[in-house]
Amino acid sequence: GVPKASFYVWAQVPDSHTSASFVSLLIERAGIVCTPGNGFGEHGEGFVRFALTAPVERLAEAARRIETAVAG
């Protein structure tokens, strides 16, 4: 059946970014979409939320892309 829950990872953004600027970087450099934490209130600033709803292989590829985007 259809799952009744989702899994998310909240990750702290690098010091040089806001939640929104880090989301923009990931979209532009890695083709990764995540949600800026500030959309969940003031305490979410400085974090992004990733939904772990894709197959493990796709999540591993996303992790590699994020690593490359942050390094470059």
Computed structural class:
alpha+beta
Proportion of β residues? 15-25%
What is the count of helical runs?
2
Shape: flat
Please compute the radius of gyration using only Cα atoms: 13 Å
Strand order in the largest sheet:
1-3-2
Give the integer mean of the pLDDT values.
93
The total strand number stands at: 3
What percentage of residues falls in helices of 4 or more residues?
Answer: 25-40%
Please describe the biggest sheet, giving its number of strands, its sense, and whether it closes into a barrel: 3 strands, antiparallel
Low-confidence stretches: none
Can you describe what's shown?
The chain is an alpha+beta fold. The chain has helices at 19-30, 56-71, and strands spanning 8-12, 35-36, 47-51. The radius of gyration is 13 Å and the shape is flat. The model has no long low-confidence stretch (mean pLDDT 93). Helices cover 39% and strands 17% of the residues. The protein contains 2 helices and 3 strands. The relative contact order is 0.23. A 3-stranded antiparallel beta sheet has the order 1-3-2.
Set out the fold topology.
Elements: E1 8-12, H1 19-30, E2 35-36, E3 47-51, H2 56-71
Antiparallel strand pairs: 1-3, 2-3
Helix pairs in contact: 1-2
